[in-house]
């Protein structure tokens, strides 16, 4: 019942419409050589819940440099922002964030527009990252949108139900700041890992297994082998604790303590009574 309440079908068609509108505008009005536009975020993955509806559109643009993002990204975002302001209804809010143009549409739909150089293949993207230093790799997050979205989207239905319930649970808690609030991606990966560890169990047991993992988050060591070989993981990451590898980017620990402080999460998960 809870799941039916938080996962609405009508929402999905509204978002599809909003994404199409923005995508066409960028492709027609922004003078960019867009090779492909890919849907990401919880909407693209099929794991959105009511009031937690993030959509992402990543435009792969021919001719963008594959490094030096700090030089070209900001001017590009500002240019796209001004084009959208001119062409979208007046009640639509368009703002630049650090790495995206955020479009907030009527009906509480937020769409983040991101831009990536166009690479020939997944392997070429990984190679480009390998050639750069650790701080230059962060802006490449958007370049993996297709593989990352597929990894989550192709999970079985019962695992996606767990993901949505975990997001709902997260949104019931009080987090002291964005650094302590677990991201959608962290919760999605935990649900996938729990499912791989214990197979198909009842929904209540699945949530209990996820809570158990979250309460011991600082002990996590998770490396995937769907897209890259575990031996490809950037060596310094193997020393980090906790370790929750990005399943498509061998240079990214999603649980990096610099990006996420798990102490509040562990405390909440240890004291949660979800179904009783």
Explain this structure to me?
The chain starts with a helix and ends in a 5-residue tail after the last helix. The protein has 276 residues and is α/β, with parallel strands linked by helices. The protein is 45% helix and 13% strand. It has helices at residues 2-6, 9-29, 41-45, 69-87, 122-130, 134-137, 145-153, 157-172, 184-198, 203-215, 263-271; strands at residues 34-40, 54-61, 93-96, 101-105, 109-117, 221-222, 243-244. The chain is built from eleven helices and seven strands. The strands form two sheets. Strands 1-2-5-4-3 form a five-stranded mixed β-sheet, with helices on both faces.
Which terms would index this structure?
276 residues; alpha/beta; five-stranded mixed sheet; two-stranded parallel ribbon; 7 strands; globular
**Parts with pLDDT < 50 across at least 5 consecutive residues:** none
What structural category characterises the helix and strand content? alpha/beta
Give the strand content.
5-15%
User: In one word, what is the shape?
Assistant: globular
Sheet with most strands: strand arrangement: 1-2-5-4-3
Q: Helical region count?
A: 11
| Fraction of residues in helix | 40-55%
Mean pLDDT across the residues is 90
Order of helices and strands: HHEHEHEEEHHHHHHEEH
The Cα radius of gyration reads 19 Å
What's the number of extended β-strand segments? 7
Biggest sheet character: 5 strands, mixed
* Terminal-residue CA separation: 15 Å
Task: Map the helices and strands.
Elements: H1 2-6, H2 9-29, E1 34-40, H3 41-45, E2 54-61, H4 69-87, E3 93-96, E4 101-105, E5 109-117, H5 122-130, H6 134-137, H7 145-153, H8 157-172, H9 184-198, H10 203-215, E6 221-222, E7 243-244, H11 263-271
Parallel strand pairs: 2-5, 6-7
Antiparallel strand pairs: 1-2, 3-4, 4-5
């Amino acid at each position: 019942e809870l799941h039916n309440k938080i996962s609405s079908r009508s929402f999905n068609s509204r978002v599809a419409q909003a994404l199409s509108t923005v995508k066409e505008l960028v492709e027609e009005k922004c003078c960019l050589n867009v090779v492909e536009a890919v849907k990401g975020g919880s909407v693209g993955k099929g794991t959105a819940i009511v009031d937690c509806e993030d959509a992402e559109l990543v435009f792969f643009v021919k001719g963008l440099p594959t490094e030096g993002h700090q030089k070209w990204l900001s001017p590009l975002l500002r240019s796209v922002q001004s084009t959208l302001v001119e062409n979208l209804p007046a009640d639509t809010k368009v703002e630049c964030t650090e790495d995206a143009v955020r479009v907030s549409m009527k009906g509480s739909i937020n769409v983040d527009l991101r831009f990536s150089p166009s690479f020939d293949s997944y392997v070429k993207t990984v190679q480009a990252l390998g050639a750069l230093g650790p701080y230059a790799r962060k802006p490449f997050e958007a370049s993996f949108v297709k593989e990352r979205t597929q990894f989550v989207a192709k999970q079985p239905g019962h695992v996606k139900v767990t993901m949505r319930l975990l997001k709902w649970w997260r949104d019931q808690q009080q987090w002291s700041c964005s650094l302590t609030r677990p991201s959608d991606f962290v919760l999605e990966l935990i649900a996938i890992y729990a499912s791989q560890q214990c197979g198909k169990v009842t929904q209540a047991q699945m949530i209990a297994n996820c809570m158990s993992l979250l309460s011991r988050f600082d002990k996590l060591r998770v490396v995937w082998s769907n897209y890259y070989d575990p031996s490809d993981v950037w060596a310094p990451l193997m020393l980090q604790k906790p370790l929750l590898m990005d399943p498509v980017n061998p240079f990214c620990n999603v649980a990096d303590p610099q990006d996420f402080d798990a102490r509040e999460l562990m405390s909440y998960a240890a004291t949660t009574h979800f179904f009783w």
